[in-house]
Amino acid sequence: MNQNRSFIVQLQILTKRMLLRVIRRPLAELPNLIISAFFLFVYDGALGGVFGGTASGTPFDFAKGNFINFILPVSIVSASLSGAASGIYLVEDIESGVFKRYQSMPISRWAIILAPMNVGALRVLLQSGLILLIGIIIGADPVVGNIGFLVVLSVAFIWGMGFAGYSVAAGIKSGSSQGAQAATFLFFPAIFLAPTFVPREALKGWLETAAAYNPTTYVIEAMRAVMVDGWELDVLFRGYLAAGLFAALTLTLAVISARKATEKA
Amino acid sequence: MLAVDVKNIKKTFISKQDTVEAVKDVSFQVKQGEIFGLLGPNGAGKSTTILMITTLLSITGGKASVLGIDVATKDKEVRKKIGVALQDTGLDNLLTGKELFFTTCRLWGYSKKDSEVRTNQLLELVGLSEAADRRVKTYSGGMKRRLDLGLSLVHSPEILFLDEPTTGLDPGSRRVLWDEIKRLRDNGVTIILTTQYLEEADELADRIAIIDEGLVVAEGTSDELKAGIGGDVITFVFETNDDLENAKNILKNTVQEKNELRITVEDGASKIPGYIKDLSSNGVEVSSVSASKPTLDDVFLEVTGYRLEGSEDIKKVQEESKR
Ligand SMILES: Nc1ncnc2c1ncn2[C@@H]1O[C@H](COP(=O)(O)OP(=O)(O)O)[C@@H](O)[C@H]1O
Ligand SMILES: [Mg+2]
Question: What is the DSSP letter of B295?
């Protein structure tokens, strides 16, 4: 077997095995899904009346009549954080000694690291897709048409992979699944120091400043552009750029720490 | 050609806090087709030695080769020849035994069809066919060790490294694993195993190296090691401390353990009457006396200065009595 082909086969086998692990623990998928759906239902129920339909034509009408369109990006961003599971999967293998067993076999170390990233990516797509579907069912309707959903999903995917890289780096660095789990706490500042429930113009003082430095802001704004406002290319560009830079940074960190973890002591 | 040739290997772990010389100077040679036992207490450096030879840890100093292939420079080649079952075994609890074998076969490059055949063969070999479709989580300690052994055999390695394969197992499961290991040896596999158990080394290993504090302190077949002690061991037991102290002066060259004194002499049984006479004529009362061939236990005591079982406690006592 030549080198590249065996790498692909190894990656396939390891990904499949990792998927089996996920399927055998279906309940582990629920918390993040529920939190994401929670944003959709609760904030639509609580704030939809204030900023949505009845606010039509008033200065508060930033949702342009459809609050689901406005809040869906927040739910999707929340769903995309499921990518952070990659680090947890990897560290579980390190803790259990499975990682060491693979190292003792003639397997590419990159296949060992990439398999949990693959499964993390799949998880991001499935969870975001599911939330999107719920959104569609309860009335999400992008102003640019259905292609808007594609934009939302693609930004979410890049963003989710950023979290995957971050969790892998944090997990390897801390060497424990708690360490990788702790990475998901980034969720709170990411979501709450951002124009989550009102547009950035409505934020005041330090929160406005914090939001300006929070890449989540640009990701949510890009998704909102296609959902609520239309093709605002500069906003879209900033969104992809923020997600892309974040992903590039964390994936680089993941590669560096993975290289260290697979080196002989 | 030698199966394994280890020459003065060393391992020093350096961290910010301190420097640990886990392996100071270890040399040994393993012939093809034999079971070689590395016997030593916890912390002796057994695992570190195995990790270095199996290419999983870099070597600080010295050289090791497997079937003539240098471990440090040709790790990929070495890995193909060897099977490894490490001490902190990595078993995927969420998968079934069958899935674990199949995945491992595929990773070693077997086709899907061959992997299925090999999986069934190996399940049979280690006696896990019945439990094949159960998740590993539900396996007993003995089953997990057998699974681990089976996984290290997937690619039919010529040389097998087993780090404490039976530690923590009940005697029954241990016996099953011993038989398995012997059968592998009889089929031509060379086996290097580590153990803290004297009986295990005695029963299984064709040759033994005793390792203590990172050094090999004795090496040979079990019989050679015992013969090296020179003669038989006579054990005297005393009721009172006075008797014991007096006897120490009379007998000379004794090794004390609790209320017992031991001496090693040629042809021990025939010399007992003479000793008893000496002692009683000096007013020393002996409560019992016996002569025996030296055991591996005696060998260990001789070369390390302490006993292996509960060695931690004995070391502590020794240190306290030094103060
Ligand atoms: N990665 C490591 N870093 C620092 N010290 C270590 C490391 N691994 C083992 N040691 C130390 O090296 C010594 C030998 O350990 P080990 O080889 O595991 O012994 P054994 O397997 O015989 O019980 C011990 O004192 C242990 O604490
Ligand atoms: Mg050990």
Answer: -
- Cα–ligand 2 centroid distance for A11 (angstroms): 31
Q: In sequence order, which ranges of B93-194 are alpha helices (DSSP H)?
A: 97-107, 112-125, 141-151, 171-186
Q: Within a 13 Å sphere around the CA of A25, how many CA atoms are in the beta-carbon half?
A: 12
Q: Which residue has tokens 């992903």?
A: A247
Gap between the Cα atoms of B33 and B158, Å rounded:
9
Q: How many CB atoms lie within 10 A of CB A1?
A: 10
The residue to mutate among B10, B11, B12, B13, having the most atoms of ligand 1 within 8 angstroms of its beta carbon, is B13
- A:B CB pairs within 8 Å: 70
Residue B187 in tokens: 């089929």
The residue count for chain A = 265
Q: What angle do CA A83, A88, A94 make, to 5 degrees?
A: 140
* Cα separation, B29 vs B45, whole angstroms: 17
Alpha-carbon torsion A86, A89, A95, A98, what sign? negative
Distance B304 CA to ligand 2 centre (A): 18
Identity of the highest mean pLDDT range in A257-261, B40-44, B257-261: B40-44
CA-based nearest residue to B194, from B30, B21, B70: B30
As for ligand 1, residues whose beta carbon falls within 6 Å of it are: A 265; B 13, 20, 22, 40, 42-48
Give the SS3 label for residue B281. helix
- Closest Cα partner for A197 from A93, A82, A87, A44? A44
The chain B residue lying nearest A16, using CA atoms, is: B103
Task: Flag whether the ipTM exceeds 0.95.
Answer: no
CB atoms near residue A145 (< 10 Å): 10
A90: buried, middle or exposed (CB in 10 Å: 19+, 13-18, 0-12)?
Answer: buried
CB atoms < 10 A from the CB of A257, how many?
19
Which is nearest to B303 in space by CA: B211, B222, B203? B211
CB atoms near residue B87 (< 10 Å): 15
Q: What would the pLDDT profile of B146-157 be if each residue is shown by its tens digit?
A: 999 999 999 999
pTM above 0.90, yes or no: no
Measured between alpha carbons, how far is A197 from A202 in angstroms, rounded to an integer? Answer: 10
Please identify among residues 77-116 of chain A the ones whose CB lies closer than 8 Å to any CB of chain B.
Answer: 93, 96-107
Distances (CA, A) of A80 to A191, A240, A246, B18: 12, 15, 14, 43
The percent of residues above 70 in pLDDT, for chain A, comes to: 94
Please answer whether residues A135 and A40 qualify as being in contact, where contact means their C-beta atoms are separated by less than 8 angstroms: yes
Please choose, from the candidates A111, A114, A124, A218, the residue with its C-alpha nearest in 3D space to the C-alpha of residue A162.
A124
pLDDT at A53: 63
Separation of alpha carbons B311 and B320, rounded Å: 14
Joined together, the tokens standing for residue A228 give 């609520």
Burial annotation B62-76 (CB, 10 A radius, 16+ → b, else e): bebbbbebebbeebe
Over residues A203-207, the mean pLDDT reads 86
Amino acid at A89: Y
